[in-house]
Structures are given as structure tokens and as C-alpha cells.
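User: Please fill in residues for this 64-position structure.
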């Protein structure tokens, strides 16, 4: 019996990377995405995102 069958799940509960379906687009996330898009598009400067561990620094990079 697999974990999915045992718990009645439709998909794997744990993944290595973040799942963008569960990203909450707060004002800060929207601003970070806009700044990253601008810097990448216009080649303004290297893009650095930093913050406390577990604060979701990689979430904006996993969006479409």
C-alpha cells in the first residue's frame, strides 16, 4: 500500500521544490517579481534575493 492509497491523497504530499500553486501573492511577492523581471529584461544588474531561512526566497523564482 502506498502513502497515497493509505491517506487517500490525489498527489504526492512532499516535493523537493516549492509548488507555485500554493504561493500567496502578497504585495511584497508581487514587488519582488516585478523587480526581478525588470532587472532580467533590461539587464540592469545581478539579481539577489535574501532573507531569513524559510521565508520563501525561492518562491518568486518558481512562478511562470
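Assistant: Residues filled in for all 64 positions:
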Amino acid at each position: 500500500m502506498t502513502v497515497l492509497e493509505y491517506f487517500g491523497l490525489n498527489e504526492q504530499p512532499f516535493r523537493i521544490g516549492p509548488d507555485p500553486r500554493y504561493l500567496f501573492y502578497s504585495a511584497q511577492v508581487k514587488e519582488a517579481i516585478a523587480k526581478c523581471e525588470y532587472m532580467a529584461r533590461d539587464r540592469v544588474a545581478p539579481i539577489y534575493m535574501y532573507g531569513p531561512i524559510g521565508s520563501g526566497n525561492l518562491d518568486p523564482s518558481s512562478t511562470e
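For context: Residues 27-42 form the longest helix (16 residues).
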